[in-house]
Design a protein that fits this description.
The chain has helices spanning about 1-30, 35-40, 80-85, 240; strands at about 50-55, 110-115, 120-125, 130-135, 150-155, 160-165, 190-195, 200-205, 215-225. By secondary structure, the chain is an alpha+beta fold.
């Protein structure tokens, strides 16, 4: 009887040891390495964690050309000007609950949450319930990684997070959803995030040789959200999203 009990205990211990070992490995993988800890201690890794307020409290009130001002408007080529000329607001994808993408997503007047891990940074946007992953582990995109938000890789440098996003799909309102400027699969968006006092700053630069004659960029900021604030679900309803289209004067009949 004692032998059977010992055999059962040994078998139970072995079965328990496997998942415990897996937990230890996972936990070890989520703990910053010595190199990352040293970087953070040296101030090379900015603390971006938290919920951030992108409402008019933190930045200028959004205008019709946001965030592009007359003295900072993208230089469009003939192809982009032709698209812009024939663009009809009623076909904007936002009226079908299609999410905004960079470079416009970062300027939308909503809250954003940032989570930092050793191998990635997550950006959670209240706008359109979007989540972007910035990979820090050296991986590169493949032909299977094209998408509306593209594929983002990043690194820390001089106290800032540098992000490069490629592999976007063609988007009729991919530059923004208020100026009628599209973007192509060649769109490349770079972002530089840093802390300035209590503010989280970013400079966003977009390149797209199919539509832009030169890179275009803007700088904006977020302020800390009120204590205890949690992102609210966007929950875009297709029928409600299409409602404004009924009151638009159609450009084409």
């Amino acid at each position: 009887m004692r032998k059977m009990r010992n055999r059962f205990v040994s078998r139970w211990s072995a079965q328990l040891a496997a998942p415990l070992a897996l937990v230890v490995v996972i936990a070890a993988g989520t703990r910053p390495g010595a190199g990352a800890a040293a970087q953070e201690a040296a101030g090379e890794i900015p603390r971006l964690v938290g919920v951030w307020d992108g409402s008019p409290r933190a930045r200028p009130v959004n205008g019709p050309d946001m965030p592009w001002t007359p003295d900072n408007f993208p230089v469009l080529n003939e192809r982009a000007l032709a698209f812009q000329q024939v663009f009809d607001e009623a076909i904007a994808q936002k009226y079908d609950c299609v999410p905004a993408t960079p470079p416009a997503l970062q300027y939308d007047p909503y809250m954003m949450e940032v989570v930092q891990w050793p191998e990635r940074v997550l950006f959670r946007y209240e706008k359109d319930d979007q989540v972007r992953t910035v990979w820090l582990d050296g991986r590169r995109p493949t032909v299977h990684d094209y998408g509306i938000q593209g594929f983002s890789v990043g690194r820390y440098e001089d106290g800032a997070l540098l992000v490069e996003t490629t592999h976007f799909v063609f988007d009729i309102t991919g530059f923004d959803d208020y100026n009628g400027i599209p973007s192509s699969q060649l769109k490349r968006v770079t972002e530089r995030y840093w802390r300035e006092g209590e503010a989280l700053k970013v400079t966003v630069t977009v390149e797209d040789p199919l539509f832009l004659r030169e890179p275009a960029s803007y700088t904006t900021q977020w302020l800390p959200a009120p204590d205890g604030y949690r992102l609210q679900a966007y929950e875009c309803d297709p029928e409600e999203a299409r409602r404004p289209v009924r009151f638009m004067i159609p450009k084409y009949r």
